[in-house]
Amino acid sequence: MDVSGAESDVSGGTVLSSQQIRTAGPEGLETSKNDTTEDLMTLLIRIRDHKDEAAFVAVFRHFAPRLKSFLMRSGTDAALAEECVQEVMATVWRKAHLFDPSRASVATWVYTIARNKKIDVLRKQKRPEPEDLPWGPEAEPDQADVIGLQQESEQLGAAIAALPEKQRELIEKAYFGDYTHSEIAEQTGLPLGTIKSRIRLALERLRRAMDQK
Amino acid sequence: MKIRHHLTDDLIMGYSSGTLPEAVNLIVATHVSLCDECRAAVESYDAVGGALVEGSDMVEVSDACLSGALDLIRNGAWSATEARMSAGDDVLPAPLADYVGGTLEDVKWRPVGMGVKQAILPTSDTATARLLYIPAGTAIPDHSHSGMELTLVLKGAFEDDDGRFARGDIEVAHEEVHHTPVADISEDCICLAVTDAPLRFKGLLPRLVQPFVKI
After folding, report:
1. CA atoms within a 13 Å half-sphere pointing along the CA-CB vector of B118
2. What ipTM was assigned to the predicted interfaces of this complex?
3. Residue A31 with chain B: CB contacts under 8 Å
4. Homologous superfamily of domain range B9-99
5. Is this structure's pTM higher than 0.95?
6. Which tens digit of pLDDT belongs to each residue from A151-164?
7. Residue B143's closest CA among B196, B181, B169, B189?
8. Which of A103, A195, A212, B121 could lock onto B99 through a cystine, CB 3.0 to 4.6 A?
9. Which fold has domain B101-213?
């Protein structure tokens, strides 16, 4: 990948907390937990093109602890969460040929697989997916699109980390908790209107943050 | 084809976060199959999910989990549930064709009166999805509903107080809405309708005489 080093220095898309993103300097957060979005993309492409098991292990080590957390917050116990993580990661391996880096970051793509697994396991439902676009995935996506998408993903991560606490919490509940807005209202005792307007405000902020680049 | 009536943010976020009933996911996936604008919006919401996973807390994973995953990729028999989607046709986009189990020809229509026909699709019972066939020019009696009603036009068009709805357009109506949709005179209309009240099978005989109370 011919991606200039400049972007990878900017604290990365692997934001652990708003605290860390503010304090992370150009040297970044130097642990294996902080692969940049482009590192992950390179690893996934190695899985896709070369069935590279070492790359798979690296991608597993990055996502498995995050996915386990995601699944446990949706209500699965630790054992079931690990079983799902295994299957999600095996699906990543098997469907790597469908990964299109001009349309999604690795994290987004993995998220959609994990979400579908969650629906399957927790709700015992099928997940209807939209029809593929008629022109199908491009064989060689435009490099500019790929880089643009990866940069946007990192910005989005930073924008989410920078949301006011109350707004971020609700967004997390909506995505991770397997709760509808009404269920969140019951849980938190907040009126449904307040939940909806906070989520709307959060999304507005994210949109603005993404427009300002 | 210009789509004028789109999904709401609530529905797109619910689809992306995976919190909607199956029947609602089905109508969203069907609309998105026809609407590039909403497809892009879904992808944006998915990106929020991706960023949340990326920024999520981490919970320690056992070594057995990794070795199990390696075992799966080396020796796993892939489950049959991931079969290829149906191709779809001019009326039924692929996700809907999957639920019909074929093409428009395979829909098992049942008459519900006034020339109108319906076919209920197999989804989980927290919401109900049905295909409706409405002969050209038919007015559906004024009705209100308990809960949400989503109507997506697949063929032909209908018109009500909220405007004209043609292929790909989706109407999102809540319980306070009273409306009298009228199918276009030129062509029979086929819609996918989803209601979020559970389907009731028995004890409602009087209502069956007034089929549209159930829509």
Report:
1. 16
2. 0.85
3. none
4. Anti-sigma factor, zinc-finger domain (1.10.10.1320)
5. no
6. 888 888 889 888 88
7. B181
8. B121
9. Jelly Rolls (2.60.120)
